[in-house]
């Protein structure tokens, strides 16, 4: 589990300008350094941090996400002012996930279909009865009693 990714998650009601500034500062990057890393104009970053823009085009979004080491979904959540849960889903790798622990953001990203570590297709439901996962605290499916972890 990558702690820095968790720390970099947007806080509820955090604005885009605060969020970019906070993550940039946590990485000790200047606006200029960030713009170089992200491949976008420093003016764009100044404008974002000054609160002058609340939207990101695809280029800025992917550049900033890569430079700040955060999933693009985090930026989507801030821009759309929705919770992370609304744009991610409870998905997990049945081989790598230890049921009862938090999920890696690499799995829960809406765009992820396969596990980044082992290539197994991600699941969002019980392998045996196909009921969706209701809580990450559960180790066993409440509908059929089977473990969420694939064992073989
Ligand atoms: Zn895996
Ligand atoms: Zn089940």
Put the structure in a nutshell.
It comes from Nostoc punctiforme (strain ATCC 29133 / PCC 73102). This protein has 152 residues and is mostly helical.
What is the H level of CATH, i.e. the homologous superfamily of the largest domain? Answer: lambda repressor-like DNA-binding domains
CATH class of the largest domain: Mainly Alpha
Small molecules held by this entry: zinc ion
| Euclidean distance between termini CA atoms | 24 Å
Question: What kind of assembly state do the chains in view correspond to?
Answer: single chain
Uncertain regions: pLDDT < 50 for 5+ in a row? 1-6
Protein name: Transcriptional regulator, XRE family
GO molecular function: DNA binding
InterPro entries: Cro/C1-type_HTH, DZR, Lambda_DNA-bd_dom_sf
Domain HTH cro/C1-type: 20-75
Helix and strand arrangement:
Blueprint: H1 3-7, H2 16-26, H3 31-38, H4 42-49, H5 58-68, H6 72-80, H7 84-87, H8 105-108
The chain binds zinc ion (ZN) (2 copies).
One zinc ion binds at residues 93, 95-96, 115, 117-118, 120.
């Amino acid at each position: 589990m990558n702690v820095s990714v968790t720390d970099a998650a947007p806080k509820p009601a955090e604005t885009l300008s605060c969020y970019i500034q906070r993550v940039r500062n946590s990485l000790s990057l200047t606006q200029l350094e960030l713009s170089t890393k992200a491949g976008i104009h420093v003016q764009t970053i100044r404008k974002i941090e000054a609160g002058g823009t609340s939207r990101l085009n695809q280029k800025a979004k992917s550049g900033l996400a890569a430079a700040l080491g955060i999933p693009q979904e985090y930026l989507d959540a801030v821009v759309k002012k929705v919770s992370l849960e609304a744009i991610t889903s409870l998905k997990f790798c049945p081989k790598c996930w230890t049921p009862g622990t938090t999920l890696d953001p690499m799995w829960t990203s809406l765009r992820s279909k396969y596990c980044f570590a082992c290539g197994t297709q991600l699941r969002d439901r019980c392998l045996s009865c196909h009921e969706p996962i209701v809580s990450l605290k559960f180790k066993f499916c409440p509908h059929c009693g089977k473990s969420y972890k694939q064992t073989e």
